[in-house]
Design goal:
The complex is a heterodimer of chains A (422) and B (150). With 422 residues, chain A is α/β, with parallel strands linked by helices. Helices cover 40% and strands 16% of the residues of chain A. In chain B, helix 2 crosses helix 3, helix 3 runs parallel beside helix 5 and helix 4 packs antiparallel against helix 5. The chains are: A alpha/beta (422), B alpha+beta (150).
C-alpha cells in the first residue's frame, strides 16, 4: 500500500468546465482526515457536503433574524419571512417554475412524494385505477404508492428495466391505458445512474391525459432541470443532496393540480379561517405547509442554490460527465469488476461489484483508506432482487470531486483485491 | 491496514472462502431465517435438536465475510453442544462483540470465537458478526421464525 503513494501521478488535464479547487476551499469538511488518510467523499448520491456559504446563511439567520414566519408584526419576523419567501423564489427560478406559488417546502423528496400520494392520490385515485411506476424506483417513490393502492384498491404497474439499466420503453407504451391515473418515475436512477427518457414519457402520458410525477432527488442537484420544458405535473427533490441542509425539500406542482388537491396536514399556516367545526384552506403553497416550517433549512437551501447558480448547472453536469467517463474507463480495466448500469445517458453514479468480495467488506476496506462509498441495496431492494444480488458498492460524484481522487480510489480497489486475496 | 488485518483475521478469511456446514439440512427440526435488511445479508440456519442436544447445525445464504465466517465458525462450535451450552456461548459471544466484556473475561472458553473480538472496534460490523448467532438463538428458544437484526 505504501508503495502506491510513492508513485508519482501524472498531472491531470484541467477540465474546461470547472476547476474543483476553486470550490473545494469553500468546503472545510473536505480537509478532514479519516483513519489517517485525507477524506475522499464519494457518497454524494446519499448526501452532499455543505459550503461555508450555506453554513453561514443558516448561522446568520439564527444570529440575526430568528423568528417565526408569516406571524409577527415585528422586525425579526418580517426579516425571517422575507428570507424564507426569497428562498422560495430562488427555487422557482432554479427549476424555471412560472411562479413561486408552485414551490412547496417539505422535509425532503420522500415527504414530497408522500404529500402527492396523500393529498392528490386519496382524492383522485379510486378502485381499479392504475399507477405506473418503474422497477428502478427508490423505496420513496414506491412505498407511498403501495400504501395508497392498498387503501383505495388501485393497482401498481411497473415498467421493467433491461440488463443495461435502462427502462423497457415499449412496455411503458403498452402499460399506459385509460385506467392509468398517474405515472411516477425517477428522473435519474440512484443505483444505475440512468437518466430516463422522461420528456418522451411525459409527452406520451399527457397525450392520454395522465399526469406525471418525477422523483428528481438525483437529477436536480446535478443537471439543469426546467419544469416548463419537461412539462411534468409534479417534481420532488431534497436540499441535502444539493449542498443544502438536511430536513428541507421541495415539491413542485402545476398550479391547477395543487389547487385541486386536498390539504396534506392540518394546523397553523395552512388555514384561511377556522371555526370549531370546520375550516377553510389557505392559498397554495401555504395550504400544504402546516405548522412552523424549517425556516433555517429553507434559507440554507436558498444559499445552496445561489452557490450552484454561480458555478452553473451546465458546467456541473458536463464536469461530472467527465469524471464519470474517466472513472468508468479506469474501472473497466479491473479484472472481475462488474458495473451495474450502462445507459448511454447517465449521471455520476456508478454501482459495481468485484468478484465475490462482498460490498460490505469492500466499503469497510475503502473507509479505512479514507474513502466514503455506499454499500447495500441503496433503498432499491426490488432492483437487487431482479439482478439476483444482495447488494452493490456505489460511488457517486459531485463537482468538488477530482480525477486525482478517482486515481486513489482505483489504487485502493486494487489493494482491496489483494487484501481479500481474490 | 493493521486495524483491518486485526478485523479480518486469517480464520475469518478462511471460513469466508470455505464456509463449513454451508448447506441445507433436510431433517432439521428448526429452520430460522436471519436478515439484516440494511445491508442485505440473509442466512438460513438449520438445527437438528434432539433431547436438548444440537445434533446437527448447518446454514446457507449470503452476506459479507464477517457474517459468513461467523456463521461457519458457529456451526463448527455448536455441533454436539447442549441447548444450555449454546445459550451460554451466545450470551458470551454477544457480550464480546458488542464490547460489553473483553474476550479474556468471558466466563466460558470461547476458543476460536476470539477471532471476532476485533468487531467490537467497528460498531457497524457488530450486526454482521452476530446475525447467524441471533438466528440460532431464536431457533433454540422457539420454533421456525424469521429474525432481523434491525
Amino acid at each position: 500500500m505504501d508503495t502506491m503513494t510513492a508513485v508519482k501521478k501524472e498531472p491531470k488535464k484541467k477540465s474546461e468546465f470547472l476547476n474543483p479547487d476553486d470550490y473545494r476551499k469553500d468546503f472545510p469538511i473536505l480537509n478532514e482526515i479519516v483513519h489517517g488518510k485525507p477524506l475522499i467523499y464519494f457518497d454524494n448520491g446519499a448526501s452532499t457536503q455543505k459550503p461555508l456559504q450555506v453554513i453561514n446563511a443558516i448561522s446568520d439567520y439564527y444570529l440575526h433574524s430568528n423568528a417565526n414566519v408569516h406571524r409577527g408584526i415585528h422586525a425579526l419576523s418580517e426579516k425571517a419571512t422575507a428570507a424564507f419567501e426569497d428562498s422560495r423564489k430562488k427555487i422557482a427560478n432554479f427549476i424555471n417554475a412560472s411562479t413561486e406559488k408552485q414551490i412547496i417546502f417539505t422535509r425532503g423528496t420522500s415527504e414530497s412524494i408522500n404529500l402527492v400520494a396523500s393529498a392528490w392520490g386519496r382524492k383522485f385515485v379510486t378502485a381499479d385505477d392504475e399507477i405506473i411506476l418503474s422497477e428502478m424506483e427508490h423505496h420513496s417513490n414506491l412505498v407511498p404508492w403501495q400504501i395508497l393502492a392498498q387503501e383505495v384498491g388501485a393497482k401498481l404497474k411497473f415498467i421493467p428495466f433491461k440488463d443495461d439499466g435502462t427502462i423497457d420503453f415499449p412496455v411503458f407504451e403498452q402499460l399506459i391505458s385509460g385506467r392509468t391515473k398517474l405515472v411516477a418515475i425517477t428522473h435519474m436512477s440512484n443505483v444505475f445512474g440512468t437518466i430516463n427518457p422522461i420528456k418522451k414519457i411525459i409527452r406520451i402520458s399527457h397525450d392520454r391525459g395522465v399526469p406525471v410525477l418525477l422523483d428528481a432527488a438525483q437529477s436536480v442537484p446535478h443537471l439543469p432541470v426546467d419544469v416548463e420544458f419537461l412539462d411534468c405535473d409534479f417534481l420532488a427533490f431534497s436540499g441535502h443532496k444539493m449542498i443544502g441542509p438536511t430536513g428541507i425539500g421541495v415539491l413542485y406542482g402545476k398550479t391547477q393540480r395543487l389547487q385541486n388537491m386536498n390539504p396534506y396536514q392540518g394546523g397553523g399556516e395552512m388555514i384561511s379561517s377556522v371555526w370549531l367545526e370546520n375550516s377553510t384552506w389557505n392559498e397554495i403553497p401555504h395550504k400544504f405547509e402546516a405548522g412552523t416550517p424549517n425556516i433555517a433549512g429553507a434559507i440554507g437551501l436558498g444559499a445552496a442554490i445561489d452557490y450552484l447558480n454561480d458555478i452553473g448547472m451546465t458546467n456541473i453536469a458536463l464536469y461530472e460527465q467527465e469524471l464519470t467517463t474517466y472513472a468508468l474507463e479506469k474501472m473497466s480495466s479491473i479484472k472481475n469488476l462488474k458495473i451495474y448500469g450502462e445507459a448511454p445517458e447517465r449521471g455520476g453514479i456508478i454501482s459495481f461489484n468485484i468478484g465475490d468480495i462482498h460490498p460490505h467488506d469492500l466499503s469497510h476496506f475503502l473507509d479505512q483508506q479514507g474513502i466514503a462509498v455506499r454499500a447495500g441495496h441503496h433503498c432499491a431492494q426490488p432492483i437487487m432482487r431482479k439482478l439476483n444480488i444482495a447488494a452493490t458498492t456505489r460511488i457517486s460524484f459531485y463537482f468538488y470531486n477530482t480525477k486525482q481522487e478517482i486515481d486513489t480510489f482505483i489504487d485502493e480497489l486494487e489493494n482491496a483485491i489483494n487484501f481479500f486475496n481474490y | 491496514m493493521s486495524d483491518l488485518r486485526e478485523l479480518y483475521q486469517d480464520i475469518i478469511m478462511d471460513h469466508n472462502k470455505n464456509p463449513q456446514n454451508f448447506h441445507k439440512l433436510e431433517n432439521a427440526t428448526r429452520v430460522i431465517d436471519g436478515k439484516n435488511p440494511l445491508c442485505g445479508d440473509h442466512y438460513t440456519i438449520y438445527l437438528l435438536i434432539e433431547n436438548d442436544i444440537i445434533k446437527d447445525i448447518c446454514f446457507d445464504g449470503s452476506g459479507c465475510a464477517i457474517s459468513k465466517a461467523s456463521g461457519s465458525v458457529m456451526t463448527t462450535i455448536l455441533k454436539g453442544k447442549s441447548v444450555k451450552e449454546a445459550e451460554e456461548l451466545f450470551n458470551n459471544f454477544h457480550d464480546v462483540v458488542t464490547g460489553k466484556i473483553n474476550f479474556d473475561d468471558a466466563i466460558i472458553d470461547l476458543g476460536k470465537l476470539g477471532a471476532f473480538a476485533g468487531v467490537a472496534e467497528f460498531p457497524s460490523r457488530v450486526k454482521c458478526a452476530s446475525l447467524a448467532w441471533h438466528a440460532m438463538h431464536q431457533g433454540i428458544k422457539n420454533e421456525n421464525v424469521e429474525i432481523s437484526t434491525e
